Amino acid sequence: MKVQITVDGKTNWIEGQSIEHILEQCGYPIESVILLKEGSVVVEDDISDHDAVELLPVASGG
Amino acid sequence: MRCRCGRTAVYHRRQSGQYLCSTCFSKSIHSKFRKTIRAYNYIKKGDTIAVALSGGKDSTVLLHLLWDLQKDRPFEMAAIIIDEGISNYREKTIGAAVKNCNTLGVESHIFSFEQEFGITIDACDPNVCSHCSFCGVLRRYLLNQKARELGAGKLAVGLNLDDEVQSVLMNFLRGDLFRFGRTGPSYTESPHFVPRIKPLRTILEKEVMLYAVLARIDVDHSVCPYASEALRGDIRDFLDSMESKRPTTKYSLLKSYDRLVPYFQEQFTCPISLCSRCGEPTVGTVCKTCSMLEAIKKMKER
What sign for the dihedral angle of Cα B87, B90, B93, B94? Predict the structure, then answer.
């Protein structure tokens, strides 16, 4: 599958076997991000080929 | 994907295999939070709780959950906000913290490193000690001192499950067994220490973040500019990777640790005295805060 990933305002098309695989390639294990599609929170199962997904990294603060 | 109630799922709790909608997810967080409060008898009717509030997601979610708990279990609550002096970072988080206190009608008190110690984190020399070590020591000192002065019986901190297991591994890797016994669910060293309570310690950081997003809580998501210095970051990456491959890793680690804590607390204790300079509790003659401030002063004089 191929997904458009936006994180911290930067957008890239990333290809992988699954959304987990794509996230790993971006340096984000599935447990470290929240996924947004069209501005709404979604689960990884609801991401399809050619979707545009925004990542919200969980880590913040000190 | 659908939640078992039929609504669209927004969260896949991989540890249990559940798919949860926004409503069921939110209920589950309230339930976990209240279960932890009950399990450790953290809050009793009539208690006075000081909340260590940064304006970030963890402490702000904690403030909101405690505020909600007040409806069923009356207790007094006030927020302590510490300004460590980190430019382009702390101003935003303090703004968010104050805004949340005003929205909920919670009294807030701001104390700064500059006012209390005459130094900011930005001005701290990393050759003396890392920004994170300096910040951690001074912040804990100030939170304890101010909570006590405000008459709080307990200090609530927003440490989540990830924070807890990261600390466990850090102390283990450093061979710091004394501290290993002090990371537990509750710890009271001396009457001069306000007992710290951690009502979010069984909730994953991702779930705290998601709760804040779904409840539209106004939090600041900035990352501290000095955070990359910390060993904690490496351990966080390792644990996130493990949890993604083997869900429940973090829960298992916390559960194992909680079973070991009583042993460590019994085996590795040291008498608490009062610092000869400032009068605050310490395990030595001079507390860590006074030692660090002295080292920085000497470095400046050179």
Answer: negative
State how far the alpha carbon of B132 is from the alpha carbons of B40, B121, B164, B296, in Å. 29, 9, 17, 15
Do residues B282 and B288 touch, judged by C-beta distance below 8 A? yes
Q: Does residue B190 surpass a pLDDT of 80?
A: no
Q: Does B57 contact A61 at a Cβ distance shorter than 8 Å? A: yes
**Radius of gyration for chain A, computed over Cα atoms and rounded to the nearest angstrom:** 11
For residue B3, the chain A residue with the least C-alpha distance is: A43
B127 lies in some domain: yes
ipTM above 0.85, yes or no: yes
- Alpha carbons B196 and B155: distance in angstroms, whole number: 5
> pTM for this structure?
0.94
A-chain residues near B214 (CB < 8 A): 41
B84-96 average pLDDT score: 93
- Domain total in chain B: 1
User: What token pair was written down for B59?
Assistant: 């402490």
| Cross-sheet strand order for the sheet of B76-83 | B107-112, B76-83, B48-52, B154-156, B196-197
Domain-wise residue ranges, chain A: 2-57
Rg for chain B (alpha carbons), in Å?
Answer: 20
Architecture of the A2-57 domain: Roll (3.10)
Give the DSSP H or E segment for A2.
Answer: strand A2-7
Residues of B in contact with A42 (CB under 8 A): 10
Is residue B98 assigned to a domain?
A: yes
Indicate which CATH number applies to the domain containing B133.
Answer: 3.40.50.620
Is A43 in contact with B10 (Cβ distance < 8 A)? yes
Mind listing the pLDDT tens digit for each residue in B152-164? 999 999 999 999 9
